[in-house]
Design goal:
The structure holds two protein chains of two kinds. Chain A has ten helices and two strands. By secondary structure, chain A is mostly helical. A two-stranded antiparallel sheet of chain A has the order 1-2. The chains are: A mainly alpha, B alpha+beta.
Chain lengths: 230, 276
């Protein structure tokens, strides 16, 4: 690896509370996934002995469910602005955002797509966020019904199961894509630093979040990046 | 060959021998319940009491009084909702048509108890051979061990009035039709209850009154939510995960092949920034 001079220039992206929340949520997601997998398909029955039996698996699932619900609450308390900014951006969609998805497949499979300048959250991240928020909401609501059936009518209880199932299936698919883009894809894995150290390379910001980058330059928060971005 | 248990409620005298025989044969614990104001011993079937003799004090449309009795147990639906929703494949239909729960496979998730259209299957706490206390789904098995060996279910065997008879479903249907003709005069609302919504049941009734009088659903079905869940959501979820995984793997490979440079930088370490 060739470490060079100018490229350590970074700009702050995520607050520490956002980072804690993200990883707590991610950990809980996988713990929930594992503790419920044998109930999703009996192909995974061999997990029961590892989890300490079905009763323990269900208990753990409830424990991690609480851990899954906590992160947005923590961010709401400690870094409200970030939470509101994220939710607001995620649900603000413009026509140009659709263009992103037309150009994106080429980029995804390794080409150089001409993607229009994106904001703090690019359209792909917004889609990921919207699906994550919707799925998490459905999972939490249906999960509460399944946890406390005594407070709900049988019709609601019966529908909680397919809802939990659908939201789960969708969120796993979303997570697979999300992880690939942050760990596996050479163009976007620079973003990972944002979720670990809280800052990202300026060249990355310029390439993937052009609008945000322009705003930062305009505000004088960063100096213009001279590198040849794509 | 499909077998069935015909319960002819018009013959029943409410002696409750079926309840005793069931507890006895299946080695079920006694479960005393508080007096509920009627002669009925238990409110409904549950994991410890697999059949309950229902007793209704019924006023007929002409102002007369009838004691309505019904031997209440698992219906053994042809299209069994419990079997459909069981995530462990613990519930199955045998070649004779009765629906049984494999206690080794059951994990006590209670999906079946929530989806049973007749509210029959329930969890019951019991101690396993390893001395572990567990909660598992329990219900009438139609005395699977007995009927597989060519015997009658314990309740049918003991019934002194032949109100519970067991045999080939076709023959039982004929018997029910014949009995229906015989009792029509005394019970004008008499009818055969073999609900089509679950494709018929392997415990079916000759009822003296409308099903609602016996707290039976008029048109029981596998819940729509269970169909959505198991026939659509689950396979589609798996397909979706498969598609995403394929896309990600393809993306990984194509990037390895065609995107050797990479045009963004992890910590600014790629060739492209180096070029400046």
């Amino acid at each position: 690896m060739k470490q060079t001079k100018n490229n350590t220039r970074t700009v702050k992206r995520f607050s520490k509370w956002v980072i804690y929340a993200h990883w707590m949520n991610a950990f809980a997601f996988f713990a929930l996934y594992l503790t419920a997998l044998p109930l999703y398909s009996d192909f995974f029955n061999w997990l029961y002995p590892l989890l300490g039996g079905p009763e323990m698996a269900r208990l753990l699932h409830r424990f991690f469910a609480v851990m899954f619900i906590l992160p947005p609450v923590l961010v709401l308390i400690f870094d409200r602005a970030s939470l509101f900014h994220w939710v607001k951006s995620s649900f603000t969609w413009k026509k140009e955002d659709l263009k992103f998805f037309i150009a994106f497949p080429k980029e995804f499979f390794g080409g150089k797509a001409n993607i229009s300048k994106q904001g703090f959250f690019n359209a792909g991240e917004k889609l990921n966020s919207v699906l994550t928020i919707v799925c998490a909401g459905l999972l939490v609501l249906s999960g509460i019904v399944m946890w406390f059936p005594q407070y709900f009518t049988s019709g609601i209880i019966l529908w909680a199961y397919p809802v939990h199932n659908i939201a789960f299936g969708l969120s796993v698919a979303v997570v697979a894509g999300h992880i690939f883009l942050s760990l596996g894809h050479p163009n976007s894995k620079a973003s990972m630093r944002g979720m670990i150290k809280g800052d990202v390379n300026i060249t990355y910001a310029k390439d993937h979040h052009g609008q945000w980058y322009d705003e930062l330059v305009e505000k004088g928060e960063i100096k213009e990046d001279k590198s040849e971005g794509a | 060959m499909s077998y069935a248990k015909l319960v002819d409620v018009t013959k029943c005298t409410a002696c409750r021998a079926c309840m005793v025989a069931c507890k006895n044969w299946n080695d079920l614990p006694s479960d005393s319940q508080a007096y509920g104001g009627t002669y009925q011993s238990h409110t409904k079937c549950d994991g410890k009491t697999w059949n309950v003799l229902q007793m209704k004090e019924y006023e007929t449309s002409s102002g007369g009084f009838e004691w309505l009795f019904r031997h209440q147990a698992c219906m053994h639906c042809e299209e069994a909702a419990c079997e459909k929703v069981c995530p462990e494949s613990a519930i199955s239909t045998t070649s004779l048509g009765n629906v049984v729960i494999d206690q080794e496979k059951c994990v006590g998730c209670s999906y079946c108890t929530q989806n049973c259209p007749f509210d029959v299957v329930e969890l019951a706490e019991y101690v396993t051979e390893d001395g572990e206390t567990v909660e598992r789904a329990q219900k009438c098995t139609m005395c699977d061990g007995r009927i597989q060996a060519g015997l009658q279910p314990a309740c049918a065997d003991i019934c002194g009035m032949d109100a519970i008879v067991f045999g080939k479903k076709e023959e039982m249907k004929k018997l029910a039709e014949a009995r229906l003709n015989e009792v029509k005069d005394r019970y004008p609302n008499a009818q055969i209850y073999d609900p089509a919504g679950v494709d018929g049941t392997h415990t079916f009734y000759l009822l003296a009154e409308d099903p609602a009088v016996y707290d039976l659903p008029e048109n029981p079905k596998v819940p729509v939510s269970a169909v959505v869940w198991k026939d659509y959501a689950q396979p589609m979820g798996k397909a979706l995960l498969g598609v995403t995984t394929m896309a990600v793997m393809t993306g990984y490979i194509t990037n390895k092949l065609f995107n050797k440079e990479g045009h963004a930088e992890e910590g600014g370490q790629t060739d492209e920034t180096d070029k400046e």
